[in-house]
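The instructor's notes for this session suggest beginning with a concrete chain rather than abstract definitions. Hand out the sequence below and ask the class to guess, before any prediction is shown, which regions might be ordered.
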Amino acid sequence: MKNRELVKDYLLITLSSLLMAVAVNFFFKEHTLAPGGITGMSIVVNAITGLPLEYVSFGISGPLLIMGIIFLGKSFGIKTLYITLTTPIFLKLIPQVHITNNLLIAGIFGGLLVGTAIGIALTRECATGGTDLLAMLINKVIKFLKLPVILFLLDGTVVVASGFISKNYMVSIYSLLSLLVIVKSVSFITTKFKLNFN
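After discussion, reveal the predicted structure:
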């Protein structure tokens, strides 16, 4: 039974990695939408420096992962490491595909995919290696703040910063909309599967 649950864990967190990569390469990257998190930071850094998105993503996630292992446990750390490694691989393997010119559609559908990915990871007791991991670390210290609230505050900061950097405030508005979809999706999935967090 334990082995079956472990297989289920890794199948679902592989799906989480896949959904994250599809969101970036189908909806976010083309329009430079940066709905917060490590994904958003990576897209902004990629746009500014031209460094490969998958390397930027891994470089930012690494230090957070080490802290996650220390403060949230070995099992959590191993599964989060798995996502941190597989997401850049999927980003590399999945081609960037043009789906729509409509920023609203891109923001909503990208947000649904990322929110679902984060929600799946949280219900399997790990993180995607992004600001959800940072939010969980903060939640260990500031227990009265709910996890989705911390996520929104962290990612909202990234969205505002990306607006100043890109000077494209319409992109920031759509990124914020996408962030709201992400937070709502995370809340829905974690509530649906009765994840217990403060």
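Then share the key points. The helical segments are 2-31, 37-49, 53-72, 74-93, 103-123, 131-141, 147-166, 169-192. The CA atoms of residues 115 and 164 lie 24 Å apart.
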